[in-house]
Here is the input.
Amino acid sequence: MTRTTATAVGFIAVLMWALLALFTVGSEPTPPLLLNALCFAIAGALGLLWVAATGTMAALRRVPMRVYVFGTLGLFGYHALYFSALRLAPAAEAGLIAYLWPLLIVIFSGLLPGERLRSGHMLGALLGFAGAALIITGGGLGFSPEHLPGYMLALLCALTWSSYSVLSRLVGYAPTASVTVFCLASAALSLPLHLLLEDTVLPDTALGWAAILGLGVGPVGLAFFVWDIGVKQGDIQLLGTSSYAAPLLSTVVLVIAGVAAPSFTLLWAALLITGGAGVAAYTSMKRR
Here is the structure.
């Protein structure tokens, strides 16, 4: 697979994450950790079917245990920190801090062997962050000291996912099929925590169950498999910058679904994110 193709495959994850908010709204009133367990169980089950169909089970046995621990902590840690941050701080502010991860990916990627951080990548990432900030905050913010624990968890969330994405190239050999084990282990960790910390509440409509199935198949399932291909074999700096399309596309999906209203904020955010991705793409093409 070429670097360009791998980058395009990785961007499929961004498209799937655009459905995360819509499906999450549809899955109410399922509590976060239970939702985590259900979605990762679905993703892991589909991964097992794919592993069996492609005959890659033997390859999974050769993967070092440290890789499984690393991958599981990455997937589980990101979601656990994200859900906890939004419980302890306002969603807009916590979400904005958590969405530092694409910018951090661009910065951290400069430390990888064979990669070099260029000013165009940084400019593109900053433009994308500005666009994401407009969408997430609606143009206004109100950080308050009493929500500091939530803000710190959101920052840890951003550090977790950006570190996971960048260090995936360095922890050792791991075929993309190993994401199956990450998903199953994340589900296994989420379930006991749910039983300890939450009340069990399941959807009482077919639409609610369809939303959970959609999450498990897409944003919390296949997305991690294609993201693994992108960050390991693609242009990680361009992929990190382009990830800011996720909140933009998510908002567009909510507008189309009638959950959110269109606004000039959305238009300005679209221009910033598109411009940032264009700058990063131009920088990558110029380097090649």
In short: Residues 238 and 284 are 7 Å apart (CA to CA).
